[in-house]
Design a protein that fits this description.
Blueprint (H helix, E strand, L loop, with lengths): L21 E5 L17 E2 L9 E5 L4 E3 L7 E10 L4 E9 L8 E11 L8 E2 L10 E10 L4 E9 L5 E7 L12 E8 L20 E8 L1 H10 L5
Parallel strand pairs: 1-4, 1-13
Antiparallel strand pairs: 2-3, 3-5, 5-8, 5-11, 6-10, 6-12, 7-9, 7-11, 12-13
Length: about 230
């Protein structure tokens, strides 16, 4: 997956205002939530890890607890983006190999789709969630492998209608995972500096800076435990 240059709108210069982290681990099955497949699942606030700012996140699974995926399995979850303090900002999704992936090809693939409202259905293994309107594909079966950060334009993120990004992690039938790996999914928005709350402390940065609002982390240690538990699996 090759990096995509960020799209910057003229006059929209932001400062680093907030950071939110969402942990994800493979190997432990999340608690089941019994609900009709066409209902809206509960979304959980993602705790901020930095200065409060313009963008906050909610997640259908938090903290992330991903079960072991057998060949052919998928796991889906959604993240909501919630903008405040200004009506609209320009967003990006980033795929970040934290510290570099520990193996060139993990065998996993990732798809991301944007819906202008919350997806219906329930997150989980082999889940099927639906968008009330037409969904837009941001990533299509992107291979999780070593490489530079890739930035994918999200388009406008509006305060009046929060978009929701559905992520689907897939282990293909032919996949053979041999070791741990680490990556992150980040969200950034480029806002108008004139809309910035003057009461927030200056970070010391200058020029156009993206607001890092969230990350999904796959920890190598968690995956190592997964590999040991499933040593006899393909």
């Amino acid at each position: 997956m090759s990096p995509v240059p960020p799209r910057r709108r003229a006059g929209q210069l932001g400062r680093l205002l907030a950071a939110v982290a969402l942990g994800l681990g493979l190997g432990v099955t999340p608690a089941a939530y019994a609900a009709p497949a066409d209902s809206y699942e509960p979304m959980r606030d993602v705790q901020e890890t930095g200065q409060q700012g313009l963008l906050s996140l909610t997640s259908s699974v938090h903290p992330m607890q991903i079960p072991w995926l057998e060949p052919g399995d998928t796991f889906s979850w959604q993240i909501g983006l919630h903008l405040s303090d200004q009506p609209v900002a320009d967003g990006n999704l980033e795929f970040i190999p934290i510290g570099g992936l520990l193996q060139p090809n993990t065998g996993y693939r990732l798809t991301a789709k944007r819906c202008e409202s919350q997806w219906t259905g329930q997150s989980g293994t082999d889940a099927e969630l639906e968008c009330a309107a037409e969904a837009r594909t941001l990533l299509a079966d992107a291979l999780l492998e070593a490489g530079p950060t890739a930035r994918i334009p999200l388009g406008d993120v509006a305060a009046s209608a929060s978009p929701y990004i559905l992520f689907t992690l897939t282990r293909p039938d032919e996949s053979a995972v041999s070791g741990p790996f680490t990556f992150a999914l980040g969200f950034t928005v480029m806002g108008d500096e004139a809309a910035r709350d003057s009461s927030l402390p200056d970070t010391g940065f200058s020029g156009p800076l993206a607001l890092t609002a969230g990350a999904v982390l796959v920890g190598a240690g968690v995956l190592t435990r997964l590999v040991r538990r499933k040593a006899g699996n393909p």
